[in-house]
TrEMBL record:
Belongs to the glycosyltransferase 2 family. Residues 6-182 form the Glycosyltransferase 2-like domain. Coiled coil: none annotated. GO terms for molecular function: glycosyltransferase activity. The keyword Transferase applies. This is Glycosyltransferase family 2 protein. Pathway: Cell wall biogenesis; cell wall polysaccharide biosynthesis. It comes from Clostridium septicum.
Amino acid sequence: MKELAIILLNYNNVEDTLECVESIEKNCESDYTIIVVDNNSTNDSKDILIKNKKRYKLILNPVNEGFAQGNNVGIKWAIDNNFKYIMLLNNDTLIEKGSIELLLNEMNSNPNIGIIGPRIMYYPEKNKIWFDGGEIDWFKFIVNHNNIGKKISTQNSDKIKENVSFLTGCCMLINRNLIEQIGYLPEEYFMYYEDVDYCVMVKDAGYNLINLKESIIYHKVSSSSGGEDSAFSIKWGTRNRIIFMNKYKYKVDKTRYIASVLFFYSTRIIKLIKYIFKKDKERYSAIIEGIKEGKKYIEGVRYD
């Protein structure tokens, strides 16, 4: 059995993808294969990726149906080709030397680990934490990044590893046995919340999610989606939170769920008012579209 498949999903961002490939080539000494899935790019990404295809397995996805679907194409190829571990890695990341080996060693030492992920720093602010493990807030139905924005030494930590309730899809090392047991990434979200949903599935199956803080990578945050406050992010974040809340409402009692829904819509109203005063039609429309699409989706879906 081959050891590690590293999946990079590309959409119109070939420069970052090739920089990530180079980072892996320079800093990973494990037995690995890089799988680049191009998610039907509309620029010259495909041509450039084809020219460099000796460096990786290239899969040209004929459609773009989102983050989960594109990664699932790569995951299926990795499983069909008998890889033991599968890593999802954002194409806008860079790894430190030895970071992947640390994750693999920890995964091998504990069969109850379903997914393991590193500490993730901002790039180029390499001393500033973006992700240090996360927890799901079952009142707001969101995730909180631990220690986000803190500037602490990447060499020292009070905790070497931590069992958490959320690991970001920015970097996940997954045991193939887990995928064969619980299935692939949920594809109903297009982008955002698929990793949250998958982490719930992993925990419900009885596995641990481990954040290994001595393993370090760097993330050019949201370079593929225009930024955390872009209209794109607002729309999909709004839509998918509605879907996630509906899917996992059984996690809380009925009264608390009603309070959660009221809280969500009251905060959307506040944001809408803010965008009206700022005459920000794009972000205003993004919230409205997200709500409409989220409600439309859940009207046609029932989760048992």
